[in-house]
Amino acid sequence: MKQERIYLSPPHLSGDENAYLEETLASNWVSPVGPHLDAWERELAERMGSKDCCLLNSATAAIHLSLILLGVGPGDVVFIQTHTYAGSVYPIIYQGATPVFIDSEPDTWNMDPRALEEAIQSLLEKEEGSAFKKQQLKAIIPVHLYGMPAKLDEILAIGKKYGIPVVEDAAESLGSTYQGKYTGTFGKTGVYSFNGNKIITTGGGGALVSENGELINRARFLSTQARDIAPHYQHSEIGYNYRLSNVLAGLGRAQMKVLDDRIKARRANFERYRHYFEARNKEGFHIEFQSEPENCHSNRWLSCILVDPEKNEGIDREKIRQVLEKENIESRPLWKPMHLQPVFREYPFAGGNVAESLFNTGLCLPSGSKLTESDFQRIVKALDTCFSNP
User: Which H/E stretch holds residue 117?
Assistant: First the structure.
């Protein structure tokens, strides 16, 4: 009989969700307005150390509103790392702007500051008539992949040097810290995700945070269809149906209580994998991990490895993925770089081949906070069939 599937990153409910949901339904506050929505915005902002927060129905919506708030429009440029999920890029296209994809650096696998600055200089120094004006370079979007903070000091310094605001995509890094401060709170705005596979979940949802309360108030206005203050329905500009519901905000409040426990469990998963693969490396294999710089504390949302077949007796990530899948265990390649995606191939790319190499050799392993010792032993048993030395 087929064993129960081990998923990559399934939802993990705390047990308190029912109480919040029952109370919310009994109160009849089920639309995108209500006490849980207001309370969770305050609690989330306070926990992250940010001045204000606007809860939304996705992280993509949060990025979109960030770009609108920064005045991004047709003819403008937004710099974003190529190693990310497409949802980070779509809002740039929504605004009619041009994404410039930036390669990764090999330490954190996130945006390469050197490639970023070279891309900026290249656009500014083009021949007269084809060069971009400085005011057209509207935003930089680093993404803290798999929970690991990007090299924010360098990226923020480049943004300051050229007068380009930073929008932090912290969709995967809720609870991760950089120099003791939470990711998502360094840029002009920060973005979180509460999708079903994230470290805490509302089934679907996101948040926009900022030290600028006016920006957040503007985001709330735009996210609720841009309805003017009037006794009738009146609209003076285009708005969006982006607000999170009070029902899901109640779910989020319950989930927020266990964030520290979820981070602890995810980091424990990574240590299990590290211990296993370090033992394989002593046997002559060469499995690499996403490093954690001293000034970073990752939530280790996903535990990922790099498997170069030239260093591992021909074993590649696809062989491992197929072996795991045969045992009903989900794993997934690292994100395919955006500049290699058919839909984005016409847009500029700056850097080398780090992101492409990460995609070709990288694999995300089951990392759910509910992963049991029995589950891990099943995973190890499958992995042993790949790495056994006769």
Answer: helix 113-124
Structure tokens at 314: 């021909």
The single residue listed with the structure tokens 């005011």 is 135
Gap between the Cα atoms of 337 and 341, Å rounded: 7
Query: Using alpha carbons only, what angle is made at residue 270 by residues 268 and 272, rounded to the nearest 5 degrees?
Result: 70
Is the CB of residue 59 less than 8 Å from the CB of residue 191? yes
Residue 300 has what pLDDT? 99
Q: Is the C-alpha dihedral spanning 338, 339, 342, 346 positive or negative?
A: positive
Which residues, 6 or more positions from 200, have their beta carbon under 8 angstroms from its beta carbon?
174, 194, 252, 255, 256, 258, 259, 262
Residue 39 in contact with residue 253, Cβ under 8 Å? yes
Tens-place pLDDT, residues 170-226: 999 999 999 999 999 999 999 999 999 999 999 999 999 999 999 999 999 999 999
Mean pLDDT (the chain, rounded): 96
What Rg, from alpha-carbon coordinates, does the chain have?
A: 22
Of the candidates 46, 92, 357, 2, the one whose C-alpha atom is nearest the C-alpha of residue 207 is 46
Which residues sit opposite 81 in a β-bridge? Answer: 102
Q: Centre a 10 Å sphere on the Cβ of residue 135 and count the other Cβ atoms it contains.
A: 10
Sheet holding 189-193, edge to edge: 52-56, 206-210, 189-193, 167-169
**Going from the N-terminus, what domains does the chain have, and what CATH number goes with each?**
16-257 (3.40.640.10), 259-387 (3.90.1150.10)
Element (DSSP H or E) covering residue 55 = strand 52-56
The whole-angstrom separation of Cα 134 and Cα 306 is 38
**What digits encode the pLDDT tens for the residues 133-176?**
888 999 999 999 999 999 999 999 999 999 999 999 999 999 99
Task: Judge contact between 5 and 326, C-beta under 8 A.
Answer: no
Q: Of 196, 177, 192, 173, whose CA–CA distance to 8 is shortest?
A: 196
pTM for this predicted structure: 0.95
